[in-house]
Design goal:
16% of the residues lie in helices and 42% in strands. The chain has helices at residues 3-15, 18-21, 94-97; strands spanning 33-39, 45-49, 58-60, 65-70, 76-82, 85-92, 106-113, 116-121, 125-130. One of its GO terms (cellular component) is extracellular region.
Length: 132
Amino acid sequence: MDKSMIFLVLLLFVVAPPCCLADPPSPTPQPKYTVHLKDKDVENLGYRCVFLEDLNDNILQPGQETKLEVYPGLSYVCNFKWQSKDKYVKVFDVGFSSDCVGEFDKDCIWEARRDGFWFYSPKDGWSKMYDW
């Protein structure tokens, strides 16, 4: 390397802005989203959520709930079965995220009822989103 090139490299380190030499900033923490699936009054509520590693059919009884960790930016669908009824419900996507409960980490709360599927929003309370 000739002397002019060495001088140029040294000059670059001396005059380079500090931001270019510092460690990169840590990534901004992202909120954690938890979907709560609650059974209000449905006996033997069957469900299967296709995004879970466990693809077995699961059962909830009245008063029980299950919690699912989800990632923002993705859509999540669960299949619910009760008696002869069979319903696919989108339990999370980007549109629901702003209506979930919590300052940073968010809880998205669903309730299965005999008359359908209800979603809880802090600003609107319980809203029926789907019929059976």
